[in-house]
Write a structure and sequence with these properties.
The structure holds three protein chains of three kinds. Chain A is of the alpha/beta class. Helices cover 37% and strands 23% of the residues of chain A. Chain A is globular. The two termini of chain A are 33 Å apart. Chains in contact: A-C, B-C. Chain A binds chain C through residues 51, 72-74, 77-78, 82-83, 85, 89-95, 98, 101-103, 105-107, 110-119, 121, 142, 144, 146, 160, 164, and chain C through 177-178, 180-186, 188-189, 191-193, 195-204, 206-207, 210, 214, 319-323.
Amino acid sequence: MTAALELRDIHHDFSGLRVLTGINLAVAPGERHAIIGPNGAGKSTLFNIISGRFAPRRGRVMYRDHDITGAPPHRIARLGVARSFQIINTFPRLTVYQSVRSAVVSRRGLRLDAWRLLDRLMDVAQETDEVLALLGLVDRRDTPASALSYGEQRELEIALTVAARPELILLDEPTAGLNTEETRKAIGLIRQVSEGKTLVMVEHDMEVVFTLADRISVLHYGEVLATGPPDEIRSNEQVQRAYLGRRGSPDIS
Amino acid sequence: MFALSVYATQALHGMVYGMLLFLVASGLTLVFGMMGILNIAHAAFYMLGAYLAYTTVAVTGNFWLSLLVAPIVVGLVGAGVERGLLRRIHAFGHAYELLLTFGLFFMLAEAVRWIWGNYTLEVPTPPLLAGSIPLLGSTYPVYRLFILGFSAAICLLMAVVLLRTRVGIIIRSAVSDGEMVSALGINTPLVALGVFSVGAALAAIAGVIAAPFLQADPSMGAAILTDCFVVVVVGGFGSLLGALLASLMIGELQSFGILWFPAFALVFQFLLMAAVLVLRPQGLFGELG
Amino acid sequence: MRRNALIAAAVVAPYFVPLGLDTVHLRVAIEILYFGLFAVSFNLLFGYTGMLSFGYAATFGVGGYAVGLIWKHLGAVPVPLALAMGALAGAVAGLVIGFFCVRLRRTYFSLLTLAFSQFLFAVALKWRDVTRGDDGLTVSPPDLTLPGGIVVHMGNASHFYWLELTVVLLCLWLAWRFIRTPLGNAALLMRDNDERAAFLGYSVFGTKLIVFTFASALAAVAGALFASFQRLVSPSAVDLGTSTEVVFMALFGGTGAFLGPFLGTAAYISLQNWLARTTEHWPFVIGLLFVVMILFMHTGLTGLIRRAATLRRFFGARRVPVREPA
């Protein structure tokens, strides 16, 4: 079975500063895969490379049978890959409804329709309402994104990501800055929206990681230290040392 | 021999104008690199400098005094613009900042027209620097050589300050990575204010020394503005070295362009700018983003 | 239902204007119409898509010169057809200019659009064989014979007004529709966060280019109307002054509402006429007003009006409040 996402020998540097070295990774279809690692390990860079924000210096990114290395983000998105952002990256002056609807419009291939009135497209409206209901954002429907609370903005981030009905979901620290209650909610939400899809998630919150992930990859100084199911990772000595060496007590046990 | 002296003279003209252009464009490119704003009003600072020179000479008879008066007055105006106006609308976004500087340019240009009149004003060359000297097989105006020398001196001074002093290092860092500098505890707003004001003062100085050469003219702001844009784009936003090279290049191009293609001088600069923007938007030495 | 009645009234009422105005004021109304269209199309680019052009007069001038040349070399082409051809010329020019400019960000975009308009200005000035340079090209629109035998005399101000009004209303309707399509929505995405839009699958370049081309076509129609009325088109139609004025007009009215720029045009032209009669230093006052406006009223007149709820619907303001100053 072809992997949903495959990273082959990814290398990257920023003006000579080596950030990623020889990253190899294969994520099976339907798998929930978490990428963890200390700050500066290269997680965000890896994510940006996968989603097409920039191209790696060396290596290939394969999505199913497509070589998406260095492809422009909109092309990758149209193939069925969607990503969320660690730093809130929404449309400040659009309402929640308008934002999510824009994602639905794209999914339906109506981006360049210059004749039909958007408000009259009933199926688009319905689909948008469904996503809002799923994310619990219905009562914030007409609020501009810039006026939302932080937690709501995080929900909008996820809404934008799933409204496109991607086959591959990339979540970049989806629970960053959320309190315990909000995080619990987010875990349930992520589980629900990734049902039957492939999920790759960068996370710092170990509870989220160990609750959701089928497999975990640990990134350390730009290299994959270990990959495997949660139990394996938990008991991996190298991993423990990597975290121990950083902060004293590992919060992965 | 005759042909050589014509070319050499043109080349010298080009350098003179190029250095003048650099004095004006340097402030512009630093501000852009540091604050992300292309301050269109900068050309008005230059113009104000020239007109203040005219008035200083008219009132006191002393040209050199204007080298003191103009930069101080215009520097203060610049500080006021940055502190009082630009900072206030920062939250509105880049487009409005650009529009504000444009509005200010327009307003200041009209204010100049109102106060000093809509015609060219002659600023007499200071007696010390009047006349010409034999050079390159012909004679060359002393004053233009002064412009060259003076600008080069200021350029050197800038280089020393930026490369060797602590202030200079702070400025250079702020231009390339403002956030980092701020995180290091340096008062970035103060640095911004300083760079803006000094840039304005520099433009005013350029205006002062340009005055006896180009005369004080209500359209001088607009004239230098387009050249400045080209310099900043070609040299790269934020890069002084790029600005210097580009200024000299523009100066020479104009000098020889007028000689060879008088009809196309206007077009050529813009084609150059367009070509750079399309092919290498970061210019010679600038950085993308 | 009441809303439709209001709109119908708003569309029909302007037709009665020539009956109540003397020729001088009618000429002002005619000016307001084509500059208003010009400003509204500018706002498609700026307010809706976030692209600030400093050389927007480029395609305005292209439209003007196009119809001038059409009537000069192709004879008495009926006005509507000539206008359509002018729009097409504007669209082509917009496509070419946009192709180079649209890929650039913010200030770079503004500078390159300026460069293009200055280039066109130089062409208009120097290519005397075609454009007659500084003297200007005479524009001779032929009288239009409508089905039923009614003749629209292009030299008659009222006739011209009615024809122009019809064309402008049509263009405004097209623009109004456009905004409400998925593509119009995509424009908003480009303004607010074009990077995120790309990650949603939108082609940033393609979207911006199409909007730019459409806006250029509308600007060309405005320019064609201007040229037809003035019966002359000169390089000043593409110069920096014209590009600047359309920015002023759009901002005065407010970029947050569809018809805001139209209001701004009316206000600006009236204000300028009054100021010019009052003081010879009127450009300074305009500049001062512009600066003051950006500082304290950057959402323009419609921003102020927005506070009054009843007028909000009439000017077609979007439900999203424009970002207020902090």
